[in-house]
Specification:
There is one protein chain. The protein has one helix and eight strands; from the N terminus they run H-E-E-E-E-E-E-E-E. The chain is mainly beta and 195 residues long. The chain has a single domain, classed as Porin. Strands 1-2-3-4-5-6-7-8 form an eight-stranded antiparallel beta barrel. A hairpin with an 8-residue loop joins strand 4 and strand 5.
Length: 195
C-alpha cells in the first residue's frame, strides 16, 4: 500500500488533532480540565486458528471536556499478544504477535449504571506477527503480518464517579483492525487509573 493511501486513511484523525492544537494555540483550551489515564492488563487476539494465548496490554491517554458529559482525546496502546508455533513438513516456525495503536476517542460519561465511561473512535494500528524461523522461512512468509491499518477502538470503563484526584477501576476494550490476510479483533481487560 502506498504512503499516500495510508495518509488518506489517517487524514480525518490528523485533521481533528490539528484543529485541537490550533484551538489550544488560540487560547481556547486550558490545562486544568485535561485528565489522564493509564491501564494495564490482558489482551487476546481473535483472528484465525493461529491466534496465540494472549498476554500483556498497556495503554494511556489524555482527554479534554467538550460538553458536560463528553470528553475527547487520544489514546496510545500496545498489546504483546503472545506467540504461536506452526509446523510445515519438518520445519517449525514461531510467530510473535503484537499490536501498537493510537486512537482519537470520544468519551461519554453516563450519569447512572455500572458503566461510567463509554469510549469510541477511529485510530491507526500497526499489526505485526513477526516470523521466527532458523531455516526454510520462505515457506511461512504468507503468515507474517506487518501492516499499518485503520482501526475502530471501543472501551467500557467502570470507575468511581466521585473522582477527586485519582480513581481506580476496570476497563474492557476492543480493537478491530482489517488486516489483509485475516481481520484482527483484539479484546482487553485491564485495571485503569484515572487522574
Amino acid at each position: 500500500m502506498s504512503v499516500w493511501r495510508r495518509f488518506r486513511r489517517c487524514g480525518p484523525l490528523l485533521a481533528l488533532g490539528l484543529a485541537l492544537a490550533g484551538r489550544a494555540h488560540a487560547g481556547g483550551l486550558h490545562l486544568e480540565p485535561w485528565r489522564g489515564h493509564v491501564s494495564i492488563g490482558y489482551g487476546y487476539l481473535f483472528s484465525d486458528s493461529l491466534s496465540p494465548g494472549g498476554s500483556i496490554s498497556v495503554a494511556g491517554g489524555v482527554d479534554y471536556p467538550i460538553a458536560e458529559r463528553w470528553r475527547l482525546g487520544p489514546v496510545l496502546g500496545i498489546a504483546l499478544l503472545g506467540s504461536s508455533d506452526v509446523t510445515r513438513g519438518s520445519i517449525t516456525a514461531g510467530l510473535d504477535y503484537s499490536l501498537l495503536d493510537v486512537a482519537l476517542q470520544l468519551h461519554w460519561l453516563p450519569q447512572s449504571g455500572p458503566v461510567t465511561r463509554v469510549s469510541l473512535g477511529p485510530g491507526v494500528a500497526s499489526a505485526r506477527s513477526a516470523l521466527q524461523v532458523g531455516a526454510g522461512g520462505a515457506g511461512f512468509l504468507d503468515l507474517a503480518v506487518d501492516e499499518l491499518q485503520p482501526e475502530l477502538a471501543f472501551d467500557l470503563s467502570t470507575i468511581p464517579r466521585s473522582q477527586h484526584i485519582v480513581a481506580v477501576g476496570l476497563e474492557a476494550g476492543l480493537r478491530f483492525v482489517p488486516v489483509e490476510r485475516v481481520n484482527w479483533t483484539v479484546t482487553t481487560i485491564k485495571v485503569t487509573i484515572h487522574y
